[in-house]
Amino acid sequence: MTDWYKMSGILGNGVIGALQPPAQTRRILSGAPDDALHQLPETRMKRAHFDADHELFRENFRKFCETEIRPHQEEWLKAGIVSRDIWQKAGENGYLCPFIDEQYGGLGLKDFRYSQIMIEELARIGESGFALSLHNDVIAPYLDSFCNEEQKARWLPKICSGEAILAVAMTEPGTGSDLKGIKTKLEDKGDHLILNGAKTFISNGILSDIVIVAAQYEDKGITLVVVERGMEGFERGRKLEKMGMHSQDTAELFFNNVIVPKANIIGMPGMGFMYLMQKLAQERIVCAIGAIAGAQFVLEHTLAYVKDRKAFGKPIGSFQANRFTMAEMKTEITIGQTFIDSLVMKCVDGTITPEEAFMAKYWTTDLVNKVAYDGVQLHGGYGFMLEYPIARAYIDARITTIFAGTNEIMKEMIGRGMGL
Ligand SMILES: Cc1cc2nc3c(=O)[nH]c(=O)nc-3n(C[C@H](O)[C@H](O)[C@H](O)COP(=O)(O)OP(=O)(O)OC[C@H]3O[C@@H](n4cnc5c(N)ncnc54)[C@H](O)[C@@H]3O)c2cc1C
User: Fold this and answer.
1) Which of 166, 175, 177, 408 has most ligand 1 atoms within 8 Å of its beta carbon, as the pocket-test mutant?
2) Which among 4, 80, 282, 383 could disulfide-bond with 376, CB atoms 3.0 to 4.6 Å apart, if both were Cys?
3) Does 47 fall in a domain?
């Protein structure tokens, strides 16, 4: 994953002189990632909501991550994008949209715990560019729930095989939180529609083949339409330079007089806002699962470091202030994990409420930022070096309080729900 020796060359120039990272950290960084990560301390409490099938699935998906993803992470980070290949491999192995019915190419596995496992395992290897859960758990449900049979037959098999990668385009340069303020326009031209507008910050923006676009459809209101790769007038803008998530192809999209067949409208015209509100709860749970798993990653890496790194003749974790920081980190993550696991079960039985999703999203994403801050601090100068997993965890965490609805919007909705 990381070339420690390259880094020690930089340090050897006298910048930090003779400082050496702890042996444990060197092992984590020096290219035997599977072994190294297995040496990280297990800090998670025993969890009751997974059975033997889930554990087997986790084992297999972990192997997939180790063999098909981890060896490419460095290359993807440099390229600013993951390969299409990984999408196809995920499809071949049944990891794309397993909840979709078998007749459309899925596995008919309608158990959200499998999604939780995949999100956790990707977090375990610090993978933030391969947007599997965005494809599987955030966007595919729009197609599965609101498309007619003809549309399902057209699109679902491709999104299960990896032939088509998904994106959802709501945000525009002039509006994000205030979704009702979008300006992208759909005009009715009798037998077809014309789409005009611009979207920004779109995840999978470059790789996507099927983009669900939210647009104002004349006086009908917000409507969801599918724009497909290759449609005339559909152009990709810049792949945006971001603070973190460096291998995720977040991009601008432009629609210039795109001719969209009416058969690409998802569900009922004018119902787009309702559909988005219905599915955004699951998107927020996906964020919360990723955030708590990211916090767990920070805990494990930081714990390994503070046990190994010595100052004043002692492991730095043995100073009381640091021991307390680690104790608080573990406690808060455990509390958060318990809450998230209970909400995952509510997703399984269909009783999750939007309010629970708002609470989970804001609290866990604040938490991952807090623990990542402490984790960097406990790594000292090494924590600022991108060669260290903690540094990437820190920069990747920052966006989580902003996307999928900012944490202020989450609190606004919780407050309104109390009649305030
Ligand atoms: C890496 C990345 C990936 C993304 N992926 C996608 C994607 O795939 N598809 C997509 O459609 N969008 C995507 N987004 C967009 C993201 O969802 C928006 O950035 C987000 O919803 C916030 O919108 P905004 O950036 O316009 O901020 P604004 O809405 O301008 O908000 C700015 C600030 O004002 C605050 N604010 C706004 N309204 C209120 C209020 N009523 N009360 C209190 N505070 C308020 C916000 O909380 C925030 O702090 C992505 C963004 C990023 C950075």
Assistant:
1) 177
2) 383
3) no
